[in-house]
Design brief:
Layout lengths: L2 H9 L4 H11 L8 H10 L6 H10 L4 H12 L5 H11 L6 H13 L5 H17 L4 H9 L5 H15 L5 H11 L3 E2 L2 E2 H4 L7 H9 L5 H15 L3 H15 L5 H11 L10 H9 L10 H4 L2
Antiparallel strand pairs: 1-2
Length: 300
């Protein structure tokens, strides 16, 4: 960073806010090595505090979230103020205008397989907080999570999140994005959680929990539909998948979710030409109730 910037920052308090504003305009991208981003990161924590990091958030939190996220990344990695810097995104996680910057920060940290466990845990905690406290940003959090499983180390961290949820170490709502993200992982063309799921994850329990919640039912149904569509043309794979899904769909308060899933399955057929929606209907709905809840009427 040019010595002249440091001199102005150290000696002219009144110039600090205008200097921050100007440096934001010089940032070309969200790369932490961008000259504008690097200067912002160094100046905002220069005196060993994060007061001006907070000031920067107030200036650009909603207008340049990608720049704020990159500055935050530099700050949380700073050996002197790293712990202090993590406090800002924790508070910002529940505010709509700051959520994109917090998500950008956490995603960048989690995608770096070289980061230590401590940094990864802090990033995951703040992503969970965004999802839990800021419902408007839930879709952005899920998108961020969906990008993570492609990194082997990060995929294992997501597995740990799901395990923590099922062991009661984190809230069910907090662990949901991690499982939904893992649903997108494929191995040899098949859903990974179906073909070779981690031993410590109860897939049926996770699906039942997600399907029974109005907050996550639509998301998990969409991903289950993708699972079934990808397996429908392979009799063996389809039968295996159906056998794994039926117990979850027969759980408590599953009728509405099951009917919604069957609605999504319309138009998908097995290799034998059987309607997948009808096949699931015949397995899920007791024959004595089919006149009361006919398939076509409930799928319109």
């Amino acid at each position: 960073m040019p010595t002249s910037l440091e001199y102005v920052w150290d000696n002219y308090d009144a110039m600090r806010k205008p200097l921050l504003t100007w440096l934001v305009t010089t940032a070309q991208n969200a790369d932490p090595e961008d000259h504008g981003v690097a200067a912002l990161a160094e100046l905002t924590v220069r005196h060993g505090t994060v007061d001006y990091l907070t000031e920067l958030g107030e200036l650009v939190g909603s207008s340049r979230p990608e720049v704020l996220g990159a500055v935050l990344e530099k700050a949380v990695r700073n050996e002197h103020v790293g712990r202090l810097a993590w406090a800002a995104p924790y508070g910002w996680a529940e505010q709509k205008s700051y959520a994109p910057a917090v998500i950008a920060l956490c995603q960048r940290i989690l995608e770096d397989s070289s980061v230590g466990t401590s940094l990864a845990k802090r990033a995951m905690m703040r992503l969970r907080r965004v999802a839990h406290k800021n419902t408007d940003a839930a879709g952005q959090v899920l998108t961020a999570f969906d990008d993570l499983p492609q990194h082997p180390t990060v995929k294992q961290r997501l597995v740990g999140e799901v395990q923590g949820r099922q062991q009661g170490k984190v809230s069910a709502r907090s662990g949901s994005p991690a499982f939904l993200a893992l649903m997108t992982v494929r191995r040899d063309g098949a859903p990974w959680l179906v073909s070779t799921p981690p031993q410590d994850i109860d897939v049926q329990q996770a699906l039942n929990s997600l399907l029974s919640s109005s907050d996550t039912a639509a998301q998990v149904i969409s991903r289950l539909t993708d699972w079934i569509r990808s397996c429908a043309g392979d009799p063996s794979a389809y039968t295996q998948l159906r056998g794994q899904l039926l117990p979850a769909l027969r759980g408590h308060n599953m009728f509405e979710a099951g009917m919604k899933l069957m609605n999504e399955l319309r138009g998908i057929s097995t290799a034998d030409g059987v309607s997948v929606a009808e096949d699931f209907y015949n397995h899920l709905v007791d024959s004595r109730l089919r006149t009361v809840f006919p398939l076509e009427e409930n799928l319109t």
